[in-house]
């Protein structure tokens, strides 16, 4: 398991953010029954940087809390069947790990939203990682039925870790 975390902002998170991120990623991978060792990259940044990324990749001219860049094209969410047939696309040739994708999180939004929703910074960071991990497994929330499934899964991951609102 490789979890790369890059902290690219001067804004400080005064919590053990690496431990939180790693525990949520590991729990998400176990929860979705990923049969492979996996690789996930996480970048913690600020509103200005995530605004630029959002504008470049989604044509949305504003900052957001989290962006997910899945590396795997699933037939159905968390359907790992046939992935090995595309090993050159999905597996790191150096480690053999499944490259799930990249997560970009605005530290500013983590702090703002924790205050806005009345819960801890730890809970907000963990929620954004769990949410993004579900995207890396192919889930989405564009229609209500899919949103319900995704929300239930990310909440179960957090509950399994004892991270509550």
UniProtKB/TrEMBL annotation:
GO BP terms, alphabetized: rRNA processing
Gene3D superfamilies documented for this protein: Metalloproteases ('zincins'), catalytic domain
One annotated GO molecular function: metalloendopeptidase activity
GO cellular component term of the entry, any: cytoplasm
Stored SUPFAM superfamilies: Metalloproteases ('zincins'), catalytic domain
Enzyme Commission number(s) from the entry: 3.1.-.-
Domain of life: Bacteria
InterPro entries named among the record's database cross-references: MetalPrtase_cat_dom_sf_prd, YbeY
Localization of this protein: Cytoplasm
Swiss-Prot/TrEMBL keywords: Cytoplasm, Endonuclease, Hydrolase, Metal-binding, Nuclease, Ribosome biogenesis, rRNA processing, Zinc
Required cofactor names: Zn(2+)
Binding residues annotated for Zn(2+), in chain numbering: 131, 135, 141
Cofactor annotation remark: Binds 1 zinc ion.
Residues of the signal peptide: none
Pfam families in UniProt: YbeY
Role noted for this protein: Single strand-specific metallo-endoribonuclease involved in late-stage 70S ribosome quality control and in maturation of the 3' terminus of the 16S rRNA.
Listed PANTHER family: ENDORIBONUCLEASE YBEY, CHLOROPLASTIC
Family per record: Belongs to the endoribonuclease YbeY family.
Protein name: Endoribonuclease YbeY
Lineage: Bacteria, Bacillati, Bacillota, Clostridia, Lachnospirales
């Amino acid at each position: 398991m490789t979890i790369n975390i890059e902290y690219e902002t001067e804004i400080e998170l005064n919590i053990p953010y690496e431990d939180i991120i790693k525990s949520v990623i590991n729990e998400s991978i176990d929860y979705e029954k990923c049969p492979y060792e996996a690789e996930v990259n996480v970048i913690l940044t600020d509103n200005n940087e995530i605004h630029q990324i959002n504008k470049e990749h989604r044509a949305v001219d504003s900052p957001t809390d989290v962006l997910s860049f899945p590396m795997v094209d699933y037939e159905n969410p968390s359907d790992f069947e046939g992935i090995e047939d595309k090993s050159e696309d999905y597996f790191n040739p150096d480690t053999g790990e499944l490259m799930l994708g990249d997560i970009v999180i605005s530290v500013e939004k983590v702090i703002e939203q924790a205050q806005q929703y009345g819960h801890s910074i730890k809970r907000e960071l963990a929620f954004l990682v769990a949410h993004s991990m579900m995207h890396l497994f192919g889930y989405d929330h564009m229609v209500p039925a899919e949103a319900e499934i995704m929300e239930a899964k990310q909440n179960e991951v957090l509950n399994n870790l004892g991270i509550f609102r």
